[in-house]
Amino acid sequence: MTIKDVAAATGLSPAAVSYAMRGVQTSAETQARVRRAAEELGYTGNAVARALARGRTGLVGVLSSSLEDLGEQRFVETLGRELGRRDLHMLVADARGEPEREQMLARQLADQLVDGLVVSPLDPSDSAWDEIGAMLPIVTVGDALAGPTVGEVLFDNRAGVGLVLEHLHDLGHRHVAVLTPSRPSTPDRPAERVVAELCDSLGMEPTVVNSRHSIEAAEAEASTLLGIEPRPTAVFCLSDSIACGVYAAAARHHLAVPGDLSVAGYDGHPIAGVVTPPLTTVEWDMPDVATAAAGLLAAAVAGRPKSRARVRVGPRLVTRESTAVLARGKPRRAREAARA
């Protein structure tokens, strides 16, 4: 039983039913009609009663693109603290990197009468966001959605990707692999589009490889990539988790980082400063991102939404020992073998 079933029984739109269940933007008569229909259909009676009595549930949905990603884990944990300071509590769902699952979970969270939704979208251009955005307040983090939102915390991916690619270009790298968590079905995410545009303008030859966020999956993809000649001289990972997998693959192939292979990440996760060698990455001030997202959603839940408020987050390149000037001649592993 879903909100759509209640909507069909009452002749209302799913959005109107959702608002009525939360006791907002609808008349007392409409709320009573929705309550009767929900009770007759056996639709989450207790949750409906609580929502209508209080005007809100105090729960917000947090739809993660993938909890395999270290950066996403850190963001969700920080977001939970910020929401808690605003008397809101999280109901977390993991899309596992699957766009179809993301849409299914978004609808299920709306059916659970959450007061709003924070999402890091896998496929921001999906037209389904238009329907979901009409049912409950949404704050998007990372990329702008095709549908309505009450707030957007957007990464300046053109600047972030540009910082990394220009850094690698200045070091002499031209054959660069880009490991992205996007799927072939979602190739139009802003960061991925920028990679193609900037590589073309810089005269670089990118090899784009899709990888899941997990370190194990990234290691497998990178190991295949590094076994093909000519192999790239640098790998740009759109996730620090993926970069950790590249480190493991480089070790499997007896490649030194950065002597044989430069590696760069994109999240600014604390692990970037712990791995050996420390990872060049892009810092996005994620605590500030979480604070902004929580504030935008809390304002909407409290009935004080800022009409599609937009916060743009700028990047900062943190250069460390994982990237270096392109070595000419034999790779380091070959030189060491020759000396032996």
What does this molecule look like?
- The chain is of the alpha/beta class.
- Among the domains are: 1-55, 434 Repressor (Amino-terminal Domain); 157-283 and 318-339, Rossmann fold, CATH 3.40.50.
- It contains 13 helices and 12 strands.
- The protein has helices spanning 3-10, 14-21, 28-41, 45-54, 70-84, 99-111, 128-135, 157-170, 190-202, 215-226, 240-252, 286-301, 332-339, and strands spanning 59-64, 89-94, 117-119, 138-142, 151-155, 175-180, 205-210, 234-237, 262-264, 281-283, 309-313, 316-318.
- The strands form 3 sheets. The protein has a 6-stranded parallel sheet, with helices on both faces. Strands 7-6-8-9 form a 4-stranded parallel sheet, sandwiched between helices. A two-stranded antiparallel sheet has the order 10-12.
- α11 (240-252) links the parallel β8 and β9.
- Residues 334-340 have low confidence and may be disordered.
> H/E element string?
HHHHEHEHEHEEHEHEHEHEEHEEH
The tally of beta strands, per DSSP, is: 12
**Biggest sheet descriptor:** 6 strands, parallel
Q: With helices defined by DSSP (H or I, 4 residues minimum), what is the helix count?
A: 13
What is the CATH T-level topology of the domain at 157-283 and 318-339?
Answer: Rossmann fold
By CATH, the superfamily of the domain at 157-283 and 318-339 comes out as Response regulator
CATH class of the domain at 157-283 and 318-339: Alpha Beta
Please mark out the parts with pLDDT under 50 across 5 or more consecutive residues, or reply none. 334-340
End-to-end Cα distance:
70 Å
**Under the CATH scheme, which architecture of the domain at 157-283 and 318-339 would be assigned?**
3-Layer(aba) Sandwich
| Widest sheet, order of strands | 2-1-3-4-5-11
Strand percentage lies at 15-25%
What gross morphology would you assign?
Answer: elongated
